[in-house]
Amino acid sequence: MKQYKIAILAGDGIGPEITAEAVKVLKVIEERNDVSFELLPASFGACAYFESGSAFPHQTKAICDEADAILKGPIGLNHEDSKRIPIDEQPERGALLPLRRRYNTYANFRPVSLPKSLAHFSPLKPEVIGEGIDLIIVRELVGGLYFGEKEMGVNDAGLRYVRETLEYDEAQIYQIMQQAFKLADKRRKLLHNIHKSNVLKSSVLWNEVMEEVAKEYPDVQVVNMLVDAAATALCLKPTQFDVMVMENMFGDILSDQGGGILGSLGLMPSACIGPDKAYYEPSHGSAPDIAGKNIANPYSMIGSVAMMLENSFDMAAEAKNVWAAMQGVFADGYSTADLSKPGSGVTMISTVEFGDKVVEKLRQMPRV
Ligand code: IPM
Ligand code: MG
């Protein structure tokens, strides 16, 4: 029997609720396969800060170091509550970026996927969605502005100022391009390279390295697109995209737009892959306004489990079953509050009910 250790960082806000549903799914995977998961819960985010004074405590680091993979819920507080935590310990800066840096999880995969049958979830017209949206954003996750040096102060003129730096070297660009081209090569052999080289020199180097890597993948067609134009194209014709590669901040912004064109950020799972360790998390925040109400959508968290099964545990067939189970629940006419628009004919169910229905579907699927 295969045995894996999974660090479970439930996080803040809706994190614990949606993590509980993902854990239910992991238990069913154990029942159905010759595999056992040792779950190692650890505190991470604002909750950890209030418990121990650190958003990413030593003990959590030790658990993550030991784990074969990490399942992480969303973290963070609302704008006002964040101010109760010193800037450098606020969970985004104090926990999430350090987690990414610690395991050098430079490759972030964010699928934006909506089968034609679920077109009614999207704010886009059915004719725009056509046969369905199925693209994946490959976001560089440990470089650029988010990781550059930062400085705040008062300048010689007595004005408050801030300086943040955007830095990439060719090795960082090379490794994310390799991931993107490999993925494009396995899929539709189409790669959209998203950049802003008409303004940013970082994009000039980005594109140079991209062209070098492209020579290794002669079958992959590259389309270069400015990031602002890509934002429009995602709304007007999302089906033109298959794999899109971009630097850290562009990926942060466009992946949230991905959630928007699907109809909910709750449909956005992700995988963050480094050379030795990977962690899996929803792309969205902790939605403190709806926390504790049993109305959050656990799809992104359960989808992150599916990505973990495929990438970390070599269980691609079972991962497909998890996706199919979730689609099955939608196909039966159910969905959580975020996707249950009035008049859509959808029956609204709770976070727990969604998890239960996914589990029920999964149990009915032939074992692999
Ligand atoms: C994301 C999030 C994070 C990011 C925040 C919470 C720091 O928005 O994963 O997209 O900006 O990377
Ligand atoms: Mg984001």
From TrEMBL:
InterPro entries: IsoCit/isopropylmalate_DH_CS, IsoPropMal-DH-like_dom, Isopropylmalate_DH. Pathway: Amino-acid biosynthesis; L-leucine biosynthesis; L-leucine from 3-methyl-2-oxobutanoate: step 3/4. Binds 1 Mg(2+) or Mn(2+) ion per subunit. PROSITE patterns: IDH_IMDH. Transmembrane segments: none annotated. Its EC number is 1.1.1.85. GO terms for molecular function: 3-isopropylmalate dehydrogenase activity. Keywords: Amino-acid biosynthesis, Branched-chain amino acid biosynthesis, Leucine biosynthesis, Magnesium, Metal-binding, NAD, Oxidoreductase. It catalyses: (2R,3S)-3-isopropylmalate + NAD(+) = 4-methyl-2-oxopentanoate + CO2 + NADH. Residues 5-358 form the Isopropylmalate dehydrogenase-like domain. Its cofactor is Mn(2+); Mg(2+). The keyword DNA-binding does not apply. Catalyzes the oxidation of 3-carboxy-2-hydroxy-4-methylpentanoate (3-isopropylmalate) to 3-carboxy-4-methyl-2-oxopentanoate. The product decarboxylates to 4-methyl-2 oxopentanoate. Homodimer. Belongs to the isocitrate and isopropylmalate dehydrogenases family. LeuB type 1 subfamily. This is 3-isopropylmalate dehydrogenase. It comes from Methylomonas subterranea. The gene is leuB.
